[in-house]
Amino acid sequence: MSAVVSALAVVAPARRRSWTLVAGLVLVGAVVLVAVISLVWLPYAPADTTGTRLEGPSLAHWIGTDKLGRDLATQLMSGARIALLVGLSSVAVGAVIGITVGLVAAFAESWLDDSISAALDVVIAFPVLLLAMLIVAAQGASLGSVIVAIGLAMSAVVARLTRVLTKRVLGEQYVTAARTSGTRWPGIVARHILPNIWPTLSVNLALQFGVAVLAEASLSYLGLGAPPPNASWGRLLQEAQGTVVTAPLGAIAPGIALIMLVIGVNFIADGLRDVADPARKGRR
To answer: What predicted TM-score, i.e. pTM, was given to this entire model?
Structure first.
């Protein structure tokens, strides 16, 4: 009887985790679907201000209009595009820079490794949003500068994780054998390092995607994000703060969209963590 109870205790969490992964895919998939549809169709032009100001939901405007008379559904659909573009591009920038720096530190001499590690600790001590704000303020507000700023800000976290994971793999016997046999370091990285550290890195990059989306929304809310006519969810929240009592949907709708995407990505990251470390399923 006790064996059956133990088995059920293990199976139940596994089912919950699988449903968590499915829920994450559904949430993120919904945002991706909306973004893809917005590429070929929108209810109105993003800059169309022919609607009545602060109009409620109707057949003509499904979610209503903002204080300028723009269709909120159109703005949200366009914002989904911006959120995904910034999230994916920022993660790509952070991954390329972070993985490169982490690999260099792991293979470097001890003095260079220590210097790089100290520099990474200093950068990580600053919040991603603060670093991104400084970079955007220096470069000027644009979609490209936001992507570069967020990517650079999160690259230090990726670099430190890459360094730690690479050091661990370099201590394995099969890597030592490969180095003894004369395999050069590019071959070791391609054949042994990256395949072994990628599962853990992918989990971290999924989490960084959520951080990037929140950072972009925060920058846009502060007026440092992509300028109009880019319909960022953060800018929609900023524009709706003055009418949140009389027309709450202007703030609620982009807030829900932002929460859906970030929670969905975190659910997916949790599922990827279980895939990367199957033994963790039994420990939780």
So the answer is: 0.86
